[in-house]
Amino acid sequence: MERARSFPSRRRLLKGAALAALPCSLLPGTRAAAQAAVVDFPGAEWTQASTSNYTASNRPTAYPLDYVIIHVTQATYSNTLSIFQNPQKKVSAHYLVRSADGHVAQCVREHDIAWHAGNWDYNTRSIGIEHEGWVDQPAYFTNALYEESAKLTAAICTRYGIPKDRAHIIGHFEVPGTDHTDPGPSWDWTRYIRLVNFA
Fold it and tell me: Which segments constitute the N-acetylmuramoyl-L-alanine amidase domain (predicted)?
């Protein structure tokens, strides 16, 4: 004689359906794994800019990468992230470095073109790194900010064969056609390039 098959209860079916409907990002462990998979610099936190604020690309195949461009935000870390995530702002950078502890957020993948230089040719050929602070407030340029930014710049230069010198690691003010002054006169270029080369 065959035994009657046991079927799951309605409650169990509903629980199963609810779990199946959950996005993968809400399941334990998957969010961190997904974030770790998308950053180009180990240890960076993925904080994506609005897709309206950068151009999808396939660099360095589509465009060679020749420069790292150093910026200063003229805003706080959190306000800068909000600006990058606002689709109406039409601005982004690949990375943002926090003043207090050197924490690095990645906002645009390196193969994509961030809108940071104010010059399309330089946008296509560079990685943009924003640093929290103001050009006239050197206290924002902490040891942690310099050191972590230098590690980031060194890794980018190594990855793409960019020389670790002042001809290729430039300030926003050095981009042709821009009226920006960052990172400003208080940025210690000698120290920064030395840190990049020893990172």
Answer: 54-184
Which pTM does this prediction carry? 0.83
Q: List the alpha helices (DSSP H) in 6-116.
A: 10-21, 30-38, 77-85
pLDDT in tens, the chain (199 residues): 334 444 454 445 444 544 444 444 444 444 444 444 589 999 999 999 999 999 999 999 999 999 999 999 999 999 999 999 999 999 999 999 999 999 999 999 999 999 999 999 999 999 999 999 999 999 999 999 999 999 999 999 999 999 999 999 999 999 999 999 999 999 999 999 999 999 9
Beta carbons of 141 and 186 less than 8 angstroms apart: yes
Domains and CATH numbers, the chain: 10-39 (no CATH), 41-198 (3.40.80.10)
